[in-house]
TrEMBL record:
Name by which UniProt lists this protein: ribose-phosphate diphosphokinase
InterPro entries: Pribosyltran_N, PRTase-like, PRTase_dom, Rib-P_diPkinase
GO molecular function annotations of the record: ATP binding; kinase activity; magnesium ion binding; ribose phosphate diphosphokinase activity
Transmembrane segment boundaries: none
Enzyme Commission code(s) on record: 2.7.6.1
Reactions catalysed: D-ribose 5-phosphate + ATP = 5-phospho-alpha-D-ribose 1-diphosphate + AMP + H(+)
Pfam families cross-referenced by the UniProt entry: Pribosyl_synth (PF14572), Pribosyltran_N (PF13793)
Domain Ribose-phosphate pyrophosphokinase N-terminal: 5-124
PANTHER family assigned: RIBOSE-PHOSPHATE DIPHOSPHOKINASE FAMILY MEMBER, RIBOSE-PHOSPHATE PYROPHOSPHOKINASE 2
Top-level enzyme category: transferase
Length: 327
């Protein structure tokens, strides 16, 4: 690790320090400035010539910077590193903004993920690694450089598994048909961790005029501990709809598991619903919008720094990520 430079940009510095500590290195020094007119300036404060570089930036809005400011800063800094002759630039993006806008759903819609990919490629990025995107295939196809999709199940299953060892029956549920493959991956990893068979189910989510309508549960959850698995939580409406459906079908306990807790302001009221007993998310997004104590009491945040540090170590050492992540 003696040649590796790990830069943690604004909004990700605490996570960067934890990752660096696990790697046995210090975070590399850099400058970030915002001018009065809103323009940004970033530059490394140490030589990166001929060295591999990792830039950590979770692309979400926070009280200090909105998501678009963060993207611009990332692009400017990546360009500065490239011009300073960094050997290889890896962008470690725990949360990737615009990943949900990966296709056209209406005429003349933008394919925002593809445009973001083109921007990062243009400024010299060599690799992008991110935690659990909405559509892994779309993420991989959007970029022409190396992509590393890091399944959140590899991070979250060990945390979720321990309290379940005494559960009589466990069912992993997808809150909609689109997330069924993600839920199946989670279920299979959980089966290997617990050494027992786990059932699956999904909720048919029906919309009318953009509004979520009642859906039906496909599968049996009666008497079971249920895990509802999704990629991210914003308002929580989809999760609460699925949780209510499972409780009405006889589930004894319902836990929501998601990689990213974006939690907009409306989630404070929506997630207070008694149908949901427990919420588990990673620390990819700080929980600054979540203010309801009733929701916070059910919430568990999983530290991603050991996981991401091992990702960085393996990339730097030229070791396989697939062999380690499994699937």
């Amino acid at each position: 690790m003696d040649t590796l430079c790990l830069f943690a940009l604004a909004g990700s510095r605490d996570l960067g320090r934890r990752i660096a500590a696990r790697l046995g290195i210090e975070p590399a020094c850099h400058e970030e400035r915002r001018f009065e007119d809103g323009e940004h300036k970033l530059r490394p404060l140490q030589s990166v010539r001929g060295r591999p570089v990792v830039v950590l930036s979770s692309l979400h809005s926070d009280p200090g910077l909105n998501v678009n400011d963060k993207i611009m800063r990332l692009a400017l800094f990546c360009g500065a590193l490239h011009d300073a002759s960094a050997r290889e630039i890896t962008l470690l993006l725990p949360y990737l903004a615009y990943a949900r806008k990966d296709r056209r759903t209406k005429p003349r819609d933008p394919v925002s993920l593809r445009y973001l990919a083109a921007m990062l490629e243009a400024v010299g990025a060599d690799r992008v690694a991110t935690l659990e995107v909405h559509n892994p295939a779309a993420f991989q196809n959007a970029f022409r450089i190396v992509t590393e999709h890091l399944p959140a199940a590899a991070l979250l299953v060990p945390h979720v598994a321990e309290p379940l060892r005494q559960a009589a029956r466990i069912v992993v549920v997808s809150p909609d048909t689109g997330g069924y493959k993600r839920a199946q991956d989670f279920r299979q990893r959980l089966e290997r961790n617990l050494g027992r068979e786990i059932d699956s189910a999904f909720v048919e989510k029906l919309r009318s005029g953009g509004e979520l309508q009642h859906g039906r549960l496909v599968g049996d959850v009666k008497g079971a501990t249920v895990l509802i698995v999704d990629d991210l939580i914003v308002t929580g409406r989809t999760l609460i709809h699925a949780a209510r459906t499972c409780k009405q079908a006889g589930a004894v306990q319902v836990t929501a598991v998601a990689a990213h807790g974006l939690f907009d302001a409306s989630a404070n009221a929506i997630l207070a619903d008694a149908a949901l007993d427990r919420i588990v998310v990673s620390d990819s997004v700080p929980l600054w919008r979540l203010e309801n104590p009733a929701v916070a009491a059910r919430l568990e945040t999983v530290d991603s720094s050991p996981f991401l540090a091992e990702v960085v170590r393996r990339i730097h050492a030229g070791e396989s990520l697939n062999d380690w992540l499994g699937g």
